[in-house]
Design goal:
Strand 6 (183-185) and strand 7 form a beta hairpin. The chain is elongated and about 70 Å long. It has 330 residues and is an alpha/beta fold. The two termini are 33 Å apart. Mean pLDDT is 83; it is low at 1-8 and 131-140. It is built from 13 helices and nine strands. Helix 5 runs antiparallel to helix 6 (134-140). The strands form three sheets. The chain has a five-stranded parallel β-sheet. Strands 3-4 form a two-stranded antiparallel ribbon.
Length: 330
């Protein structure tokens, strides 16, 4: 499977195992989030944008940090700006503030109710810009992922919640209700956000419109209540040269816009053998094994720089891409 979630072509290439494709279908059929387990670099983050592209569904993503709150995935509220504006209003005896103007839709709002999110965000932008510029605000406003989502299905989406294990346990617990019901209420304004139904869908099937993909590196144990409400799949990294070369071939085709040359595939094969050796050495030493993403880094570096396995500079490239200093024990 692919493993370049931070690359420019992330989501454009993916070798989808049959078991993972089934897991996606099960998650959609059950109306549950799909929780992806796996080592860093195994392709968890790349799967969601690939599925969105394959299905022509809208795509949104959110990278979780230690500061993330469950609410951030639904909406954010700019209380600091509202306070400043309220002080100015008192000073100039202006009209009462519109609380909605300080609420910004989050990725789940955009995914479940794009029409509501766009209207809400546009109105907020107009209010914040001020009366003199409101006439132009509607034309200038652009919603998240507008370019990527151009022409995609309006009532279907894929949402990636990346690395949820970095957050406090309150975050997954706080997402139980909005993910299960696909609706929530904005605390500051009382606005109720609900799934905007697909007029072409069969009655009573709103959960089939959206796929929520959640990834974890399992750095922190997730709450059992959260795990019970997910469809769980584990991504194992490619273990054979054949699997790695298949991934390399797809990336080469995408980047080069043509079939890879024989020399490219020979390089991919040589690097695959090197990766197997480095992984075996890492297992013996008890350190982290290099990922598929690092294998692809080595491939592009060697190809661009004209370096082959065994060349004078190969050992240096090997240390920079596969056997990184932090992996070694001296």
């Amino acid at each position: 499977m692919d493993a370049r979630g931070d690359a420019p072509d992330a989501g454009m290439v993916y070798v989808m195992p049959d078991e993972l494709r089934l897991a996606i279908r099960v998650a959609l059929a059950a109306g549950r989030p799909l929780l992806l387990r796996g080592k860093p670099g195994s392709g968890k983050s790349s799967m969601a944008p690939f599925v969105a592209q394959e299905k022509s569904w809208r795509y949104y993503n959110y990278v979780v940090t230690s500061q993330t709150r469950a609410r951030d995935l639904q909406w954010t509220f700019d209380g600091v700006r509202r306070l400043a504006d309220a002080q100015n209003n008192r000073l100039f005896k202006s009209r009462e503030l519109d609380v909605d103007a300080y609420v910004e839709p989050g990725p789940l709002w955009w995914a479940f109710a794009p029409g509501s999110a766009a209207a809400h965000a546009r109105r907020g932008a107009q209010v914040r810009r001020g009366a003199a510029q409101r006439a132009h605000a509607q034309d200038e406003y652009r919603h998240p992922e507008q370019v990527r989502n151009e022409g995609r299905k309006a009532h279907h989406s894929v949402v990636l919640i990346d690395e949820i294990d970095k957050a406090d346990p309150d975050v997954p617990n706080g997402l139980l209700v909005p993910l299960a019901s696909q609706e929530f209420t904005v605390a500051e304004s009382g606005t109720r956000v609900m799934v905007e139904a697909d007029p072409e869908a069969l009655p009573g099937r709103p959960f089939h419109q959206h796929l929520v993909v959640i990834t974890t590196n399992e750095e922190r144990e997730l709450p059992q209540a959260f795990l019970r409400r997910c469809v769980i799949a584990e991504l194992a990294p490619p273990t054979t040269s054949e699997e790695l070369m298949k991934i390399a071939e797809k990336h080469l085709k995408l980047r080069l816009k043509t079939e890879p040359e024989r020399s490219d595939m020979q390089l991919a094969q040589a690097l695959a053998h090197e990766l197997e050796q480095v992984r075996e050495s890492a297992r013996r030493q008890g350190v982290r094994e290099p990922s598929t993403a690092e294998y692809l880094d080595a491939l592009w570096a060697c190809r661009e720089l004209g370096i082959k396995v065994g060349d004078d500079q190969w050992d240096a490239v090997r240390r920079l891409t596969l056997v990184k200093p932090q992996h070694l024990r001296k």
